[in-house]
Amino acid sequence: MLAAMRLPFALLAVALPVVAGAQTAIHHCIGSSGNPVFTDQPCASMQASPVRASPIPEGAPSSAPMMLCAATRDDLRQGVIEAFAQQDANRLAGLMLWNGYGKGAAIADIEMLAGLVRQPLLGIDFPGTPAPARSAAAPYPATVSAAPPAPMLVLDVADRTGTGARQWHFDLVHRAGCLWLRNAD
Questions:
Q1: Has residue 157 been placed in a domain?
Q2: Strands 36-39 and 27-30, how do they pair?
Q3: Are 80 and 92 in contact (CB under 8 A)?
Q4: Between vectors from CA 35 to CA 64 and to CA 22, what angle results, nearest 5°?
Q5: Per DSSP, what are the bridge partners of residue 28?
Q6: pLDDT exceeds 70 at position 43
Q7: Assigned domain for 12 exists
Q8: CATH number of the CATH domain containing 99
Q9: How many domains in the chain?
Q10: For the chain, what percent of residues have pLDDT higher than 70?
Q11: Does 95 have pLDDT greater than 90?
């Protein structure tokens, strides 16, 4: 019985490196239309330009942890600012909570984000006041009032003509220890 069990493990030990080596690299490119393209072909074969990873700033530790999600409003603000500075719709999309989206709605929002990050970011705000802090002595508010406004992020972005501004609203969603955006427009 033991000899029969060893055979599958031996096959697995041989097969895993072969399978891992067979994975194709994914290239991140910008197509001729300016839209992001992910492909298993070199960017040049797609008449696209390769997107290079941002270099690590001089003096920054090379082992600095990569932020996987925004834990605070400051992290979220910085991620949005970076997305606009790099005109990177994927960076902005990475700050969004996508569960519950249908295919059509997700595609529409990704296209909206691609157009949005091409415009100058004029302002970023978290309107409303946060809920009052509770202490151990007073864990519950003394009076019940109207529900506070839902937490939100508001972006002021120059319109496509450059003569005015448009506001974009995103709900803030706390999930799994992270702060996510959800399109509210």
A1: yes
A2: antiparallel
A3: yes
A4: 60
A5: 38
A6: yes
A7: no
A8: 3.10.450
A9: 1
A10: 63
A11: yes
The predicted model scores a pTM of 0.54
In the block, tokens 């007073």 appear at 138
Is 179 domain-assigned?
Answer: yes
Does any domain span residue 31? no
Per-residue pLDDT tens over the stretch 111-138: 999 999 999 999 999 987 454 455 555 5
The answer to whether the CB of 163 falls within 8 A of the CB of 181 is no
- Write out the residue range of the structural domain in which residue 104 sits: 71-127+150-185
Angle at 112 between CA 110 and CA 79, to 5 degrees: 70
> What length does the chain have?
185
Residue 91 sits at the vertex; the CA angle it makes with 124 and 46, to the nearest 5 degrees, is 140
Q: Write out the H or E segment, with its range, that includes residue 68.
A: none
Query: Mean pLDDT lowest for which of 63-67, 104-108, 169-173?
Result: 63-67
The token pair that represents 133 in the structure block: 């802090």
